[in-house]
Amino acid sequence: MNNIRNFAIIAHIDHGKSTLADRFLEITETIIKSKMQDQFLDQMDLEREKGITIKLQPIRMNYNYKGKSYMLNLIDTPGHVDFTYEVSRSMVAVEGVILLVDAVKGVQAQTLANLSLAMKQNLKIIPVINKIDLPSSRVDEVEEELAELLRIEPKTIMRISAKSGLGVKEVLGRVIEKVPPPDTLEGQKLKALIFDSKFDSFKGIIIYIRVFSGSVKLGDKFLLMASGAEGEIKEAGIFKPNLVAVDKLESGQIGYVATGLKDVSQTRIGDTITLLSAPIGSSEAMPGYQEPKPMVYASFYPQDADQYSMLKDAIAKLKLNDASFYTEPESSQALGRGFKGGFLGLLHLEIIGERLRREFDLNLTITAPSVSYKVVTKDCNELMIHSASRLPDPTLIERTEEPWVKLEIIAPPSYLGAIMQVCQDLGGIYQDTQYIGKEKMVVTQEAPLRAVIIDFYDNLKNASSGYASLNWEFIEYRGGDLVRLDILVAGEKVEAFAKVIPRDKAFHEGRKMVNALKEYIPRQLFMVTIQAAVGGKILARENISALRKDVTGYLYGGDYSRKKKLLQKQKKGKEKMKESGRVRIPAEVYFKVLRK
How many CA atoms lie within 13 A of 62 on its CB side? Predict the structure, then answer.
């Protein structure tokens, strides 16, 4: 099948991937003009609102080029660093990529990251400069940057305006001419890679596949090699971009099959699907994908305890659609039952939380983001700690390690001083500064992830007047002077407020926590003491004064000793209450403090 071309569009966020995909759909007449809208392949409302691509989206286009008909399978990919796993999965299913670069912003951090992924897969790379019609475009400078980066002649780089359609037909022609057709192995046993999936209440689990050999059709009995799940194909089809059934999917094609399976644990992204009647050998199974490592952790708790089972089902279905989303059950004395989630970054956390609220109608509380820590105990056991409440007693800990990441910051050279100051505040280690062309530099820095996820990106944007872009990747766990900060209310530790932080930041963080709690905890009938402590040492303290009933209000005239007796009696009663009573912290206090 020499008429098949499988390709993806990769770029930094907001460089015009979805707009270019829109023009492809128009040129190939895949979507009629009356139904066309901006960001057509961004199917979620959340994607349209934020103006970013969150989920990879495949689509098949048919196009006549120089008198020959071609089948073009396009995968539109996200551009944000938090969704790199979506991009990496797309690249295994294609033979070539369009590397899109904004003519104003030039090469950015995610441009480099996605280019690196494409090179590792040995994909054909077609460099394209977009937005050349903008008054502020720097076409020649960006062309120089790209040529230097790819080590190619500048004249081979294409110039387009995806918004107006200028040069887009030529890009489509370049894809047909330069991207190689897939190696098709017709007549052999079915071997197809699962690169995405979703749940449908009628068709069961729908898996997105790239067929590498053989064919699959309605009624075939299938086997998923990693999970061992078996079933019968309920439907086979293609993306237009909605699901359209076809007679069969053949070698080299991209499409979907409805499995009819209902148990979400039976399908895994990266698994190989084959026919039960003629299975391929285990040695022929596709290598799949490297498991993504969650970098940021936060917990989800339903504000209504009755919604726990709904949250459990919603998370299972969402994990099917997002393989980089990790969860495990968790319970809290204060917040009830919930789930600890692992995410690739803060935007990933925000998107998952928003999807749970919108798509499953859940009212959630999301705790403050944190990172995982590696703890080595004195008896040489190694523990991964995602929550401060699980940190062992300090006397049992030999050392504590935290994740470090490599940062790649791309910005104009004139902002080097301000960027170095922001990096210095991270407590990281400077590595290198390189230059791409005349107007771009790449600053490489190593830093602890806990410092990066708080407000580093905002500070970086402020320091560079919005010009800097950031990409980061995990390096290793390194030792650090880390302690557990406990919050005590009326002498009792409150596990939900515990944190793992560097020792030198413990006082500042403790002071901030006790001040917040003093503001939110309602007054009791006795004085409540709020303390922040590390081990047995109290770092900060605030008191919430007692509510006082006017027990002498009904008295008038007479000796003051009568009032004094009543006040003394009230004082003794408050002391007894303090000894036996416990402070009940309302759920909304946890929500407010953790969000703050």
Answer: 4
